[in-house]
Amino acid sequence: GAANPAWSALRSGTLPASSALSQASAGPFMKLSAVRRLALAGSLSASVALGLQLQHGRDARPFGASVAFAQPRAAGVAMLASPAEGRARLIDGKAIAAAVRRDIKASSDELKAAHGTTPGLAVVLVGNRTDSATYVRMKKKAAAEVGFYSVDRNFDETVTQEQLLATVEELNADPRIHGILVQLPLPRHIDEAAVLESIAVAKDVDGFSAENIGRMCLRGGEPPLALPCTPAGCVELLQRSEIQVAGKEVVVLGRSNIVGMPVAHLLQSMDATVTVCHSRTADLPAQVRRADIVVAAIGRAELVKADWIKPGAVVIDVGVNSKPAPEDKRGYKLCGDVDFDQVSLVAGAITPVPGGVGPMTIAMLLKNTLNLTRHSLGLPRIPLRRQQ
């Protein structure tokens, strides 16, 4: 692990933003399930000085006709950092994640005062993988920050499937637990799908059960109890940065079940016109060039170039990759799916890597836990989508 760039970055705390389908040669880090890789990347990059006030709307550089930036709803809460001259504004994922956690803590405190209930999150961990243990530790830190009850169930790699299923059933029945997360990967002798499907929908904190995904995709009817964390984080970034989505052309690069598919459905539900591109898409640059908002979640280092981007467009980079950098003492640099240095000269706003999408994953996991707690009390969920 020590010789691996991405894993070394994890251990040192210099974490990237989240990744959708990265196939970069990052060894143990990239062998994690994509869901856990996203969450791990997000949790370890989520530290931020609370109360940081970022300037918004003072720079005279136009964002272009393609994207409308509304005025902030509350003074001092803007999340678009002032750009360097001639560059796109930065969408500060660290600051936004911190704001989300503050909101979650306030709502959690209200639940405790009004109903005597503390949101509870359980993680089932198998084996002694350092990466998995790191994720669990950071999850516990974030849960403690917002005042959640946190439970771990740890097993060695010889655990049987029957033992894991019994543990999930125990947590399903525990009224103190409102969200259950089974840490992946599991040992080869365990049927991961069977274990994940045994989690009650009412405690599916990752939001990936067939019922939650189906409810997310359908128009009308009951909303999902939880949403996939990274796609929900992308929406939260756009909304808290006061970026208009309704009526805009959105291009999503990548069609994974983890990021591409759910984020496309979420943005379509916000009245965007969404095009999903993938490895078989013809003339990918031309497709991207139409977009007012680009969500890059394709897992290829710096694939998206400046000449792909409409001037003034918003760029959300979900990727995390490593590339050789002999000038860096580590011998590599972390980068997203977007050529940040060049694209930021054309775009109106952009998420950095690290510090953009990544910090949102744990924040949205906590929000899912809060909503599942509210559901258990018969209270309405806190919606992701704001009324336009």
Explain this structure to me?
The chain is α/β, with parallel strands linked by helices. The protein has helices spanning 5-12, 28-31, 34-44, 93-115, 130-145, 161-173, 192-197, 210-217, 229-240, 260-269, 284-289, 340-343, 360-376, and strands at 80-81, 89-91, 120-126, 149-155, 179-182, 249-253, 273-277, 293-296, 314-317, 321-324, 332-335, 349-350. The protein is built from 13 helices and twelve strands. The strands form three sheets. It has a seven-stranded mixed sheet. Strands 4-3-5 form a three-stranded parallel sheet, with helices on both faces. Strands 10-11 form a two-stranded antiparallel ribbon. Helix 3 packs across helix 13 (360-376) and helix 9 packs across helix 13 (360-376).
Supply the key terms.
alpha/beta; 12 strands; globular
Put simply, the count of helices is 13
Strand order of the largest sheet: 1-2-12-9-8-6-7
Give the distance, in angstroms, between the N- and C-terminal Cα atoms: 47 Å
What can be said about the biggest beta sheet?
7 strands, mixed
Total number of strands: 12
